[in-house]
């Protein structure tokens, strides 16, 4: 037993091997996540993982927690229902950039606006991996994808800035190279109350790296090492990512705002005599 | 079990169908509603938003109908009874999550207060043109249950029934109202809580290490758990095995999807609900549902006054369709006349089931108002010729 990897107890080992490609960063993010779980002191039975569709969407299926693999783009509203029906649960949305920010973008900004008490972990690989490498809302200008074969001509979203402006109480970005900082950031989003957002820059060597001549998984990690700049507290306006440009990492936002349920209970208590503050259905 | 008295407004009320539906949901134990405003269904969520703080529920107005239709699934997996409410355009946006609810066997209720379409159509005026969408609107093969109230009282009663059916069969249940029934104000009697029968959630009695989330009971329906109970379940919209794990092959697809279909088809006799009068000895049967069933009564009376033997058959479940009973009648009567506020939806199901054993006549209506009873009467005259 002693040679068993400590992460195994957090995984559905009967579903391993996973479907991810060699060099993909998703395994690293899951490794960091289970290490964060092992140190966060939250009973594992109280933690739920909700994913949308895509390569990152498959994370829910590998974690040995109550896990929900929902529809494309809709992990956040599913998580909203889960959290509101049982506020004792710690609900973590774990999904990709296309899922959360393109098809799910509207839910993302509204959940941040109302400060829904969920953690959102967005693995950003700059492309749609599961469908074969199409251009997405985070693909940098000039990057090649199967549906931008001459180079992307759209400006991408700066995700930390988007989350910050929409009202997130915690905003951070790390790459899969920064495993220690990433693990710590995951512990922080697990502990943080309110809409917490963690962006993880992660290599997709098969579909993004190869087409853009960024090398294999190892070379992409080397790129993160050489070109990442840690600037905690940086104004999120300044952290956009250019093609082959530097990657600003760090914790950018950490603030307090009342959550949706705190606001609801406060306002209803003020208006309704004998209102019993809502603490959950079950 | 009986209804939780907290929130049951026992007594006689003078309210519209939308408000009655909201009260029905509360009486059924629904404590989570996610919705998005849309005419003519908005009064349901307005009622819920006002009432929930008094009975321990949470209402959230989501950013759109897509979000509403999946937030309720999340709430169910955390243990709530949940519902969303919409009309045509919103119903169109919800289709993917009807499929997810079917695939994950999530007991949940969708209310569609139908208005004229297609597209934005007639926001404030009635139609019955989402009936096929309710049955077939999401992709893939599945079965659902759809109920058609024809009065505010039935909006109350059938909303409770919808929750009970959804729990019993772990299937999304649609309440297919129409603008008239939704906005019609009538007497609604809410019984005492101890007279309201509630079908409880089918929680498993197995321990986590022996529980298989999609191993069905004898009636083909599996028992459920909720998040946070230590079962560490995996719930996915992918084709899955009894463990709930994705399996991408034809054998698993056959096992998984065939049961989703069979659990409704094989239990259809228990689910189907209809009402009939004078069908034993008649020449022609008028088949209708929702508001049209009330309009049809006048045409039926007029035909009876002329000495024509007319039976009345009202669908309460549109889906599953009362196939067995219609087949019996088809062997005995000369014709069926079916008015509905569309250009033929449930009519085609009727025609299929009758299978040429009697004549079938559609009395179509494009929507915007109800039929003129005269049009139905004329079709009855035509049918008995």
What this model shows, in words?
The complex is a heterodimer of chains A (282) and B (385). Chain A has one domain: Rossmann fold (3-Layer(aba) Sandwich), CATH 3.40.50. Helices cover 33% and strands 16% of the residues of chain A. Chain A has 10 helices and 8 strands. Chain A has helices at residues 26-39, 59-62, 75-85, 97-103, 105-113, 159-166, 179-191, 205-209, 217-227, 260-271; strands at 47-51, 66-69, 90-96, 119-124, 170-175, 196-201, 228-230, 247-254. In chain A, helix 5 crosses helix 6. Chain B is of the alpha/beta class. Helix content of chain B is 39%, strand content 21%. Chain B has helices at 17-28, 42-55, 65-77, 88-104, 131-136, 152-169, 179-183, 250-265, 268-271, 291-305, 323-330, 346-354, 373-384, and strands at residues 11-16, 32-35, 58-61, 82-86, 108-116, 122-126, 145-147, 172-178, 185-190, 234-236, 274-277, 284-288, 310-315, 317-319, 335-339, 359-363. In chain B, the strands form 3 sheets. In chain B, strands 2, 3, 4, 5, 6, 7, 8 and 14 form an 8-stranded mixed β-sheet that branches. In chain B, strands 11-13-12-15-16 form a 5-stranded mixed β-sheet, with helices on both faces. Chain B has a two-stranded antiparallel ribbon with strand order 1-9. In chain B, helix 1 runs parallel beside helix 2 (42-55), helix 1 packs parallel to helix 6 (152-169) and helix 3 packs parallel to helix 4. The model of chain B has no long low-confidence stretch (mean pLDDT 98). Chain A binds chain B through residues 12, 14-15, 44-46, 48, 50, 60-61, 64-71, 74, 76-86, 88-89, 106-107, 110, 260, 264, 268, 272, 275-276, 278, 281-282, and chain B through 31-32, 34, 53-54, 56-58, 60, 62-64, 66-68, 70-80, 82, 96-97, 100, 226-238, 245-246.
């Amino acid at each position: 037993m002693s040679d068993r990897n400590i992460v195994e107890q957090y995984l559905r080992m009967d579903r391993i091997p996973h479907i991810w490609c060699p060099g993909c960063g998703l395994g690293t993010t899951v490794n960091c996540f289970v290490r964060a779980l092992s140190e966060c002191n939250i009973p594992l039975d109280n933690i739920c993982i909700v994913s949308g569709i895509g390569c990152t969407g498959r994370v829910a299926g590998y974690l040995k927690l109550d896990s929900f693999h929902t529809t494309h783009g809709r992990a956040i509203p599913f998580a909203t229902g889960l959290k509101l029906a049982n506020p004792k649960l710690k609900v973590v949305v774990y999904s990709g950039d296309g899922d959360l920010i393109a098809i799910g973008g509207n839910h993302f900004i509204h959940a941040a606006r109302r400060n829904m008490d969920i953690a959102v972990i967005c693995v950003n690989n700059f492309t749609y991996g599961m469908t074969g490498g199409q251009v997405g809302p985070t693909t940098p200008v000039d990057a090649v994808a199967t549906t931008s074969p001459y180079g992307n001509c759209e400006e991408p979203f700066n995700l930390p800035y988007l989350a910050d402006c929409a009202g997130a109480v915690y905003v951070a970005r790390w790459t899969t190279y920064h495993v220690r900082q990433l693990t710590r950031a995951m512990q922080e989003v697990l502990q943080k109350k309110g809409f917490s957002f963690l962006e993880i820059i992660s290599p997709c060597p098969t579909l993004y790296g190869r087409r853009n001549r960024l090398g294999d998984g190892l070379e992409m990690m080397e790129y993160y090492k050489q070109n990442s700049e840690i600037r905690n507290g940086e104004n999120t306006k300044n952290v956009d990512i250019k093609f082959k440009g530097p990657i600003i990492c760090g914790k950018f936002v950490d603030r307090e705002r009342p959550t949706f349920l705190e606001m609801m209970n406060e306002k209803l208590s003020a208006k309704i005599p004998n209102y019993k503050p809502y603490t959950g259905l079950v | 079990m009986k209804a939780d008295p907290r929130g049951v407004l026992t007594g006689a009320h003078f309210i519209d169908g939308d408000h009655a539906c909201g009260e029905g949901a509360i009486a059924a134990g629904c404590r989570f509603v996610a919705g998005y405003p849309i005419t003519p269904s908005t009064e349901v969520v307005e009622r819920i938003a006002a009432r929930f703080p008094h009975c321990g529920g949470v209402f959230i107005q989501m950013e759109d109908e897509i979000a509403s239709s999946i937030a309720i699934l999340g709430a169910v997996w955390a243990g709530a009874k949940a519902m969303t409410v919409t009309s045509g355009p919103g119903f169109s946006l919800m289709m993917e999550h009807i499929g997810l609810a079917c695939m994950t066997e999530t007991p949940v209720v969708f209310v569609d207060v139908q208005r004229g379409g297609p597209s934005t159509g007639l926001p404030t005026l009635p139609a019955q043109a989402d009936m096929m969408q309710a049955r077939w609107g999401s992709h893939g093969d599945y079965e659902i249950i759809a109920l058609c109230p024809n009065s505010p009282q039935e909006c109350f009663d059938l909303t409770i029934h919808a929750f009970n059916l959804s729990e019993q069969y772990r299937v999304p249940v649609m309440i297919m109202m129409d603008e008239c029934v939704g906005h019609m104000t009538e007497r609604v009697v809410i019984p005492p809580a101890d007279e309201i029968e509630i079908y409880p959630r089918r929680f498993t009695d197995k321990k986590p290490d022996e529980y298989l989330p999609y191993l069905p009971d004898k009636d083909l329906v599996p028992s459920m758990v909720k998040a946070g109970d230590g079962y560490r379940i995996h719930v996915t919209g992918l084709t899955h095995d009894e463990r709930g794990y994705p399996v991408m092959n034809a054998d698993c697809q056959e096992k998984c999807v065939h049961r989703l279909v069979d659990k409704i088809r094989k239990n259809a006799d228990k689910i189907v609900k209809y009402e009939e009068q004078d069908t034993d000895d008649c020449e022609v049967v008028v088949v209708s549902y929702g508001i049209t069933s009330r309009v049809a009564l006048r045409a039926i009376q007029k035909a009876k006054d002329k000495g024509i033997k007319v039976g009345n058959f009202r669908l309460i479940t549109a889906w599953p369709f009362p196939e067995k009973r219609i087949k019996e009648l088809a062997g005995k009567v000369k014709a069926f006349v079916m008015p509905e506020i569309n250009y033929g939806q449930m009519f085609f199901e009727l025609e299929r089931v009758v299978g040429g054993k009697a004549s079938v006549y559609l009395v179509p209506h494009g929507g915007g108002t109800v039929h003129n009873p005269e049009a139905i009467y004329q079709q009855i005259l035509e049918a008995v010729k």
